[in-house]
Amino acid sequence: MLRIVGAVVGVLVGAATTLAALRVGNLLLAVPLVAWGVSVVAASCCDAVTQRIPTALVRQAIVVTGVLLTCALSLSGDWESVLVSVVAAAAAGGVALLCWRFADAGYGDARLAVLGGLGLGHTSASSLVMALTVIVLITAAQVVTTFAVGGNRRTRFPMGPALAAGFVVAATA
């Protein structure tokens, strides 16, 4: 069942990122954003099922997305967006790494945050605020559900789906 849901969400994210590229006015941006979106969805589906994010998937997606984004944005002369993508990836990964170190978040979530940050080179500040709101709301819902089924504050739950939803909202808003 999750395979079907993941495939449907992947198709929807691919369509949404293509529309975002068209909205920005750079059709070349569609290819890296679709690859980025599908990779983020695949990693979050793995996390939802196994509470593990495959390192190989995320590393390869970071390399492929980085190369495709650099090519697409440099062909259009948009070096500022390349820089913003790199800074966003470093910032998101840095925050997630701090959460891994001090708040017991998973290291795979830190890698997923780096991948997620790569797709944010063309976003606005308001879309980042919407993304943060989505991440907080989904995480709060997961916490409430965890406590409702008898968990406690040490119970682990997957952060990948919340991170993926936030990054996709930011990239497509």
Could you characterize what this model shows?
- 80% of the residues lie in helices and 0% in strands.
- It has helices at 2-24, 30-50, 55-75, 79-103, 107-118, 125-148, 160-172.
- α4 (79-103) runs antiparallel to α5 and α5 (107-118) packs parallel to α7.
- The protein starts with a helix and ends with a helix.
- The relative contact order is 0.16.
Keywords:
about 80% helix; mainly alpha; about 170 residues; 7 helices
What's this model, at a glance?
By secondary structure, the protein is mostly helical. The chain has helices at about 1-25, 30-50, 55-75, 80-105, 105-120, 125-150, 160-170. The longest helix has 25 residues, at about 80-105.
